Each structure stands twice: as structure tokens, then as C-alpha cells.
Fold 3-phosphoshikimate 1-carboxyvinyltransferase.
Amino acid sequence: MPAKPLVARKGGALAGTVRVPGDKSISHRSLMFGALALGETRIEGLLTGEDVLRTADALRALGASIERLDDGTWRTRGRGVGGLAEPSRVLDMGNSGTAARLLMGLVSTHPFTSIFTGDASLVKRPMARVTVPLSKMGASFVLRSNGRLPGAVVGTNMPVPIEYRLPVASAQVKSAILLAGLNTPGRTTVIEAEPTRDHTERMLRHFGVDVREEVLEDGALAVSVTGEANLTARDLVVPSDPSSAAFPAVAALLCPGSEVRLPGVGTNTRRTGLYETLKEMGADIAFQDQREEAGEPVADLLVRATALKGVEVPPDRAPSMIDEYPILAMAAACATGPTVMRGIGELRVKESDRLAMVADGLVACGVKVEAGEDWMVVHGTGKPPKGGARIATALDHRIAMSFLVLGLATDEPVGVDDGSFIDTSFPGFVRLMNGLGAGIGEG
Ligand code: S3P
């Protein structure tokens, strides 16, 4: 993909109603579960970002039928749990950790070999976090020596159920194990000390699977599935992604006089830590018309420009806003006083080392930042920093979008060296933002 430099310039207020694309996590899962269900599943609002298209492509290579229909909905015809077929080509998961890790889980309890790879960002990300538990279930793996892709998954035909306590708070690891457990006789249990996003659990229930949850004596949550499970095809509506909505929402907060409405955004509390934090910073954000669609809560968000104040973010909130720290840091850079973020070491193994990328980029824009291995403090002065920098994005969509949002508030423009990766999660980002009145262009 050729690099696409972009630049954001300060303009007037943002105003209007815009529908943000579908939730990335839910979109991946809806294709995967549709591919496992017997019968036909229709999916409305699927994110057609690069990451999700990789999942669709891989599932086709595994034998599922997945089509985009003329009316924009998607139709899957599944193979049944255990019914996937050996892929005759390498499964290239592009930029997507979720696609790679969840599908590695899924194929690990199918009796065939699959070869996975990814782009320059994905091949740097740790895979041992899934291969360790999946090996205990009977699969074997040949990865590069540091546990990175490319690598092969040799699925087992005699899977054994496990009980596994997550060493890192990760919905991807939890989901990889539960997906492997669907085709494993007996009860597979994942124990999580900190609650992570539960889209897998909710959607499995929507497809008729009995997912059990139990709070243990130490407060941890044990989540189990019993295999071999059957999924019944069910239609789905994918809510707008709260992680994507975060960009126009923070832009509206930072540009004086703005009022932006974002309909149908997912409000699952395992995802809304950013909004809770912004409200603590004083943000004028309302969740209107709260309702439920296909097992997930949604609401219309109304966001009005507000002068923010710095806060201390509780570390146990990290799993519910893990992808949102970069955009929070932009809000913090314009707030009054320090914003303290602790317990954020996982940011270092995302699409890029987000902790370093955010800290370096903000410093280049004139912000005082302190950072350590798993913490960061952003010192806001109560007005936007000077800006005037071109930020390296290291193939990271959220780094690109975060700094472009900051550039809408700074006196001097903020550019990013490559905005092409924005399409992994938010196709149409520039158009949508400019439709609200933002000034983002090539350059
Ligand atoms: C995701 C889980 C999170 C998140 C990612 C999507 C998912 O990753 O960062 O964007 O869909 O399960 P971890 O589980 O590694 O924290």
C-alpha cells in the first residue's frame, strides 16, 4: 500500500450527525460465528475495514461461504462446528491481531494444518499468549523463535478441555480459547481477574450456545463453554464502534462551539471506559435512547465542546478503554492539569508501541509528557498545544487518527506520515470528519 500523508488544520466548530462504521471486534466475531453456524446468517452494519475483510477471506479459505449482498448486508453460510477444511493457501491476517489470534484458536481444534502470516506490524506482535494455552488443548505450533508470525498451527483431532487463568487481561486470548473449546468435548474454562470485552460470550449466546459465567471467591470471573457445541444461524446487527466514535467525539470536545451526534454506538460497559473518563474530565457527553440490538447495548451519543480538566485514570479501567488511550492522551494534552495513566503496559504490544508513539508525538507537538514502562502522564495547560509536527504512525490506524484529531485544535497543523492504515478500522474517516466541518487533507 503506498503511504498516504495527511494533515489536519484548525477550523471552526464541528456540527452534524454522522454514523460511525460498525464495531471491529463484533464484526470479526459475526463472520467467524456465522462460519461455524449451520444455516444462513445475515449481518447488517458489518465493518468493511481491511482487518475484517482479512477475516472474511481467511474464513473462505477455510471453506465457509461469505458474501456481501447488493443491499450492503453480508450473508454467511456456515460449515458447523468442527466442519472447517484445511486451507490450501497461507492465511494473511494483514494488520489484525484479533483476526490472527481468534482464528488460530478456532483452527487449533480442527485436525489440519494452517499457516498464518501478517504485515510488518503483526509479525512483531506476541503470539505465545495464545499458543501456550492452545498447546495445552493439544494443538502444536511452529512459530519464529521469538513466538512471532509467520507460523503454522497444527490442529489436533483429540482436543482436551482446559481451565486457564489469563496472565494478561486480553479478550483476544479469552476468545481464542473459547473458540477452540467449541470443538472440544467437555468444559473449557477461561478465568479472568479483570473483565475484558465480552462480545464473544454475548454473541455465542445469541447463536444458542450455553456460555456459563461464575464469579470465583477471589472475585475473578470464570467463563466456560461446553463442546462440542452447536451454533444456530441468527441474524445480527453490528453497532457503531465506540472505539471509532471516540475520534469524532474527542474532536467535538476539543473544537469550541461543536455539537456532534453519533447514532447507534455500542455502549457495552466493557468498552466504554474512555467515555467514563472523559465525563470525569468534565466532558458534555449524553447517551440518549439507550436500547439493545442483537445482544449488545447501544445508544445515540451527543457530544458538545467542553473545556476539560486532567484526571487520574484508575488502572483497573484499562481493559475497557485499552484502544482509547491514544485519543484520551490528545484530550489530556488540551485539558487543564496532568492526566495520569497507569497499568497501560499492554499498549506497547498493539499495532505499534502506542505508549512510545503517543509520548513522542505529543512531545513533538509541544506537550510535556512523562512516561515509564507501563505509565504515562500528560501535562495539559488548559489550551491546545502548538502542534506543527509530522507524526510517524508505524502502520497504526489509531495513532494516525488520534494526531489528526489533535491537529484540529492546535494553532499549527499536525500531519501524519501515513494515513492509509486508517482503513483497517475506520474506512471513510477523513470524509466523515470533513463532513462535520473538519479540515483534514492530503499533504
Ligand atoms: C480485541 C481485544 C483487544 C483490543 C483489540 C480488539 C478483541 O486486544 O485491543 O483492538 O476484539 O478481542 P487484547 O485482547 O489483546 O487486549
